């Protein structure tokens, strides 16, 4: 699907979608449990892939709008009768690979072309170190993967600078092993707030895990049992970033964002980033609302070491801001659904924006650029699509984004919400 954005101002109210990161973890945690109701869940292409995996392991997921009734496999995943297709979801593949290592038999996992290019090697090595068998069919550390269990709990070491999802996957699986798991980090942990999310979800499901001097640890023999058999998913700050940025660059009369209650999400940093760049921002944490209005934006330096999903949003803000916006500590952002550093540099370049790309940074020269509408490519990446749509709000002329349907991964109603805020757009299926 192509979406064409006509320059527009935004105003009104918008509600944040539920968190994708929390929903993934909640669905799998409910899979490890017996019976769980997950409320306010995000039902998207990615989270549906995780739900499908739970079903293949022997559970079931019944959906009624944003409520999921999940019958789990009670800590013991069965051997799937079919290949687990993780579609485009890296979170699904990492979390489910560790779950597969608990099954007494062989599981095969694959995904789409993009997912089959993403690194899984460190997690495969960890599973092998724990007594399982795990290999890439192409011998390159990438899917398709073949995993044979069961593993037993013990000690394992793993790099922390490739993906925090490896640690999340091992912690969730380690809780139901007999001996538990101690994880030693070989390198500094990147995207640490995502592990904080995991620890928060585990605690809500009655599972004790902790950070240690060397890494993380989780005791074995635990049961996943949320209080009252229910879990409620918070709003998603990765998605909120696009609404905040829309208000910051085109919200003359202000935008109110609802569903923005505090949580362990590192992407809450976007509130401070937008404010530091010069937008008028007021976050009422108790009410869970953020009011944002456009201001004269100035470029700043931002580290995305712990917030990789924010890079596309910050890059677009930088294209509108005066001066340079330098995004640093960004090398790991190259290993997402696409190389988001190069993708944003190239697509913003198509829109007339000057950038300087280095291996671990992206500098957007907003003061030297004039945004001009053009045809751009969303690169099959939901975050690239949404960031380019923001640029279209203030570009000179129409901006047409190819592959816009990929917003279904995390924010299926994104373009509907933009229209409700006053954005003029056309969809071409």
Name a few traits of the molecule.
429 residues, alpha/beta, UDP-n-acetylglucosamine1-carboxyvinyl-transferase, Chain, 2 domains, four-stranded mixed β-sheet, 3-phosphoshikimate 1-carboxyvinyltransferase activity
Topology:
Blueprint: E1 2-6, E2 12-15, H1 20-32, E3 35-39, H2 45-56, E4 60-64, E5 67-71, E6 84-85, H3 90-100, E7 106-110, H4 121-129, E8 133-136, E9 145-148, E10 155-158, H5 165-174, E11 181-185, H6 192-204, E12 209-211, E13 215-218, E14 230-232, H7 237-250, E15 255-258, H8 269-277, E16 280-284, E17 289-293, E18 301-303, H9 311-320, E19 324-328, H10 340-350, E20 354-358, E21 361-365, E22 375-377, H11 382-394, E23 399-402, H12 414-420, E24 424-428
Parallel strand pairs: 2-15, 3-14, 6-7, 10-11, 18-19, 22-23
Antiparallel strand pairs: 1-23, 1-24, 3-5, 4-5, 7-9, 8-9, 11-13, 12-13, 15-17, 16-17, 19-21, 20-21
């Amino acid at each position: 699907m192509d979406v064409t954005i006509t320059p527009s101002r935004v105003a009104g109210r918008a509600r944040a979608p539920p968190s994708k990161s929390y929903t993934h973890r909640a669905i799998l945690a409910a899979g490890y449990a017996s019976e769980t109701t997950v409320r306010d869940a995000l039902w998207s292409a990615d989270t549906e892939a995780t739900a499908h995996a739970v079903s293949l392991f022997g559970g079931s997921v019944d959906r009624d709008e944003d409520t999921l009734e999940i019958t789990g496999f009670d800590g013991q995943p069965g051997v799937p009768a079919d290949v687990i297709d993780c579609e485009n979801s890296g979170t699904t593949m990492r979390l489910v690979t560790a779950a597969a290592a608990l099954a007494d038999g062989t599981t095969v996992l694959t995904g789409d072309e993009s997912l089959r290019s993403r690194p899984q090697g460190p997690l495969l090595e960890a599973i092998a170190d724990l007594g399982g068998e795990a290999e890439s069919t192409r011998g390159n550390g990438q899917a398709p993967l073949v995993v044979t269990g069961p593993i037993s709990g013990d000690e394992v070491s793993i790099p922390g600078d490739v993906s925090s999802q490896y640690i999340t996957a091992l912690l969730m699986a380690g809780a139901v092993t007999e001996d538990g798991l101690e994880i030693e980090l070989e390198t500094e942990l990147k995207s640490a707030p995502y592990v904080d999310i995991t620890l928060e979800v585990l605690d809500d499901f009655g599972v004790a895990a902790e950070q240690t001097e060397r890494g993380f640890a989780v005791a074995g023999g635990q049961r996943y049992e949320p209080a009252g058999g229910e879990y409620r998913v918070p709003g998603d700050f990765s998605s909120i970033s696009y609404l905040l940025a829309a208000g910051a660059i085109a919200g003359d009369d202000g935008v109110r964002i609802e569903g923005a209650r505090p949580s362990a999400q590192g992407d809450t940093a976007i509130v401070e980033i937008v404010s530091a760049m010069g937008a008028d921002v007021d976050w009422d944490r108790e009410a869970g609302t953020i009011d944002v209005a456009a201001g004269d934006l100035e470029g700043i330096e931002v580290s995305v070491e712990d917030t990789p999903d924010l890079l596309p949003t910050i890059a677009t803000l930088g294209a509108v801001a005066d001066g340079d916006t330098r995004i640093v500590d960004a090398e790991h952002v190259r290993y997402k659904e696409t190389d988001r550093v190069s993708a944003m540099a190239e697509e913003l370049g198509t829109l007339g924006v000057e950038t300087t790309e280095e291996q671990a940074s992206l500098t957007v020269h907003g003061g030297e650029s004039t945004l001009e509408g053009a045809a751009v490519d969303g690169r099959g990446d939901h975050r690239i699509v949404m960031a380019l749509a923001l640029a279209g709000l203030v570009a000179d002329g129409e901006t047409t984004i190819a592959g816009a349907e990929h917003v279904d991964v995390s924010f299926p109603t994104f373009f509907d919400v933009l229209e409700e805020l006053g954005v003029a757009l056309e969809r071409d299926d």
